[in-house]
Design goal:
Layout: E1 2-15, E2 20-22, E3 27-28, E4 32-48, E5 56-59, E6 62-63, H1 66-82, E7 89-95, H2 105-120, H3 127-135, E8 149-152, E9 165-169, E10 176-182, H4 192-202, H5 206-225, H6 229-248, H7 259-273, E11 278-281, E12 288-293, H8 297-305, E13 312-316, E14 323-324
Parallel strand pairs: 5-7
Antiparallel strand pairs: 1-4, 1-14, 2-3, 4-7, 4-8, 5-6, 8-9, 10-12, 10-13, 11-12
Helix pairs in contact: 1-2, 2-3, 5-6
Length: 325
């Protein structure tokens, strides 16, 4: 029996990842840039039994669904390939926020799983290698291995060995925050994986998405390094709107937003017009994350809570990378 526990955090992409050029290796068409979120955590324990059998996965205290088990087993198989004899795994994972609801729970979940599995196996992998391992299960998971602001480099090699996440700015290097308005606590109808694939195959805007995202990424990296919040916020809003336009124009369309989502976007614009620096971004779900100065996050959160249909508002700041518990 070999056991290890880890904690990883979700991340919110400011320049979005949308579309894989290689589904098996999970290689993106473009790079992306995110902020690791201190308040949204996953804690995972992995035990290798040393005996043959099927892997067991408990997620938030209940048996995981088929697709989740399959992806977890595929990741565990990569670890077992490095160290034969580990046997079946027992995995227990808990999220501090809604699972599969558009808040990148797969990012924190598979980042935590990759780290705990590698540690339980006794593999001494640098964080970049853990990032590559996590990427194979969930693309955005590669960014959650690092704290602060993180870039997922697209890479060019066919084997994916240069498609890796790298830190851009540490968590404590910039006094910014996010207020995240939770619109729905249930699982979303459209999976990100399926919607992303349909966008690649059918959206008339996909080529334009790839071309413009490359430029957005360069601008966003420069904005982070310069601590230019207004510039980064404008890029983040442009990126999420283009991503969702691409998803909506796929066949079949993937529409992740709900009624309160549009009202929240309007409220963020009202905040800006009134003099509060606030910029929205939305992952593949209905929730709205608002980037702002740390000093303004309470004011922003209060404004978001006033929108009908908002279940909760989470205030968070840039968080650390994966931790061993």
């Amino acid at each position: 029996m070999a056991t290890a526990r880890s904690r990883a955090r979700s991340n919110m992409a400011l320049v979005k990842y949308w579309g894989k050029r290689d589904d098996r290796l999970v290689l993106p068409f473009t790079g992306s840039l995110s902020m690791t979120l201190d308040a949204l955590t996953t804690e995972t324990e992995v035990t290798f039994t040393g005996a043959p059998g099927s892997d067991e996965l408990l997620l938030d205290g209940a048996p995981a669904q088929g697709g989740e088990v399959k992806r977890a087993t595929e990741l565990l198989n990569l670890v077992r390939a490095e160290k034969p004899g580990l046997g079946a795994a027992k995995v227990q994972s808990r999220n501090s926020f809604p699972t599969a609801g558009g808040l990148a729970s797969s990012a924190s979940g598979f980042a935590a799983l990759a780290a705990a599995a590698a540690w339980a196996a006794g593999l001494d992998l640098p964080t970049e290698q853990l990032s590559i391992l996590a990427r194979r299960a969930s693309g955005s998971a590669c960014r959650s291995l690092f704290g602060g602001f993180v870039e997922w480099v697209r890479g060019e090699r066919p084997d994916g060995t240069d498609s890796v996440a790298r830190p851009v700015l540490p968590a404590d290097a910039w006094d910014v925050a996010m207020a995240i308005a939770i619109v729905d606590t249930g699982r979303k109808k459209d999976s990100s994986r399926d919607a992303m694939k349909q966008s690649v195959l059918t959206s008339p805007y996909f080529d334009a998405w790839v071309k413009t995202t490359t430029a957005d990424l360069e601008d966003a990296r420069a904005a982070v390094l310069a601590r230019d919040l207004e510039r980064l916020g404008a890029i983040a809003e442009r990126s999420f709107l283009k991503m969702h336009a691409t998803a909506i124009t796929s066949d079949p369309p993937a529409i992740f937003w709900k009624g309160p989502t549009l009202e929240l976007i309007a409220r963020v614009r009202e905040l800006r017009e009134a003099g509060t620096g606030a910029w929205a971004t939305i992952d593949a779900g209905p929730h709205v994350a608002v980037l702002c100065r740390r000093a303004d996050v309470g004011k922003v959160a209060q404004a978001l809570r006033q929108i009908s249909g908002v279940r909760d508002v989470v205030e968070t700041r840039p968080g650390p990378g994966v931790e061993r518990l």
